[in-house]
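Hey team,

Filing this mostly as a record. A colleague (T.K.) asked me to run one chain through the structure pipeline before their review meeting, and I want the input and output archived in the tracker in case anyone asks later how it was produced. No errors, nothing strange. Just documentation.

Input sequence:
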Amino acid sequence: MIKIDNLVFRYAESLDNVIDNVSVNIEKGSFTAVLGHNGSGKSTLAKHTNAILLPLGGAVYVEDMDTKDENLLIKIRQTVGMVFQNPDNQIVATIVEDDVAFAPENIGVPPKEIRERVDQSLKAVGMSKFYKEAPHLLSGGQKQRIAIAGVLAMRPKYIVLDEPTAMLDPVGRREVLSTLKKLNKEQGMTVVLITHNMDEAVLADRVIVMDNGHIEMDGTPKDVFAQVERIKELGLDVPQVTELMFSLKQAGLNVPSNVLTIDEAEAVLKGLVNKGAENKIPVHTHSEETPAIEVDNMSHDYSVGGPYEKKALQDITMYIPKGKIIGIIGHTGSGKSTLVQHFNGLLKPSKGTVKVDGTDIADKKTSMKEIRSKVGVVFQYPEHQLFEETVKEDIAFGPKNLGLPKEEIERRVIEAAESVGISEKKYEKSPFDLSGGQKRRVAIAGVLAMEPDVLILDEPTAGLDPKGRRDILALIKKMHKEKGITIIIVSHGMEDIANTVDLLYVLNEGKIAMHGTPMEVYSRYDELEKIGLSAPQVTKLIYETCGQYVCTVEDAKEAVLRSFD
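Output structure:
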C-alpha cells in the first residue's frame, strides 16, 4: 500500500501548512477518488505519493519505501506513475510510439523489452492503431490516453492522475475513465484519481474529500454523496440526480438520499410518478432581433496546399443577436475555437462572410483595431493572457494601447475590476500568484476594460472546482445584466451552459449540427450522444419518467412534483 503518516507540508512562500497532519492509506488494487476545492491540498498530497514533493513532517511510504530516501527515488517513481491535467505538458516526442518508449529508454530497459512495453501499454489504453501518429494531431482524450500509456510503460503498480479530464470534452472524459476502470478491474492497477467531476468520483470504490489541508470525509461514494449539505459547505457538488433526490426529499417525498446514477434515479421515479403529456418546447426565432455578429455560408481551411491541409469549418451560418448570452458546444476538434477567432478577425474566412455590427471583417477597408475593440476574447488558459507585473497593470494594458487619457484608463481599470469582483487590495499583486479562478477574473477584467460590445469566453470554467465554476457563471450573468453586452461562451460543461445561455449552437466536425434554446437542443439528447456530447443528467431522466423536457435540477424537481397534481 501507499501509507501516508501524519504528513505535513508547506511551500517556501507560504506561512500556512498546505497539508496539515494528514494520515491515510491507499490499498493496493483500489480505485480512490480525491475531491476538494482549488487550494485544498489535493495535488500537493498526490505529488508526495511518488516523491515529487518530500514531507516537512511525518512520512510517506510506498510499499515500505520511505520517499525521503534518495537511493529509492527511481524505484518509487517506477512503482507510482503520475499523470497530470494537461497531456501536452507530458508528451515529448513527435511520434506516439516514441513518446511511450521515452521513460523505459531513460531507465535502461533493453530495446526488445521496450518494444513489448510500448505495444502492451498502447493496447491497454486502446491506442494501438495510432502508434505512428503525430501526438499533436490527436484529440485531447487521445493525447491523455497516450500520456497514460507512457506511464504504464514504466510498469507501475499505482497510477495517480491529477485532474486528467479537466480540459476534455464528454467523449474524451468517457475514454479516459473507461481506460482507468479497465486498468483497475482487469489488471489490478491501483488508481488514485483527483477530480472536480462528481460523476467521475461515483465510479470509484472510495471517495476522499479534502479541505484546507485536511481530510474532511472518507468513505464509499454512496456514503459521501448522501451528505449533500456537507459536500456543498466544502465548496463542492454532487451528481445532478443526487441533488434532485435531495430536493425531492426536502419537498416531502420518500426517496433515498444516496442515489448516484441515472439508472438508480429512474428506478426510484418510475415507482412514484405518472408519465404526463409532453411539454411544448418554444421554438426560437430571430424576428426583430438586431445582429451583433452574422456569419453567412462561412468555411475555413488550415494549411491550404500543404501536407496538413484541413477543413476546419464548413458552410457555417449563424446569427448572434445583440444583448444575448450565446453558448457554443462541440467535441474537441469540432471547430469551436476556430469559429470564435473569426468573430474578432484573428482568422479570416476561406469562403463566405463574417460581419461584426454590419462590418465585413474580410473587407480590406475594415479596421481590425476597431473590430477588436468591439469584440473581446478571453482564451481557455487565462495564464496565457497575463504577463504584466501586477494585476492593475495587466487590466490597464488594453486601454493604454488605445491611447486613452490616464484618468480614463484609471476609470476603466477600477470599473472592470469591480465588475469581476477583484478587490483593490489585489491590484499590486502579481497575477501569477492568484488561483485559477482569480486568474480568469483578471483576464476577463483586462478584456472588459476595453469596453467591448461582445465578450467571448473560451472554456471559462475549465479546470475550476464546482464553487469556482458557480462563481464564474454567476459573474457572467451579473456582467450581462449590468452591462447588457453580448456574451458568447464556448464550453464542454453541458450542465453549466443549461442554466446560463439564451441560445445554443452545437458544432460537429466543422458544421453546425443543431441550434436553438437550451431546451430545444437538449431535448435531442440521443443525437447529442451520437456526436460525442451529452445533455444534463436530469434531461434524459425526467423525459423517460415524466415525459417532460427540462435542463436544470430545479425544473426537474418541479416536473416530478407536478406529476402528483
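Quick notes for T.K.: The chain is about 35% helix and 20% strand. The CA atoms of residues 282 and 520 lie 8 Å apart.
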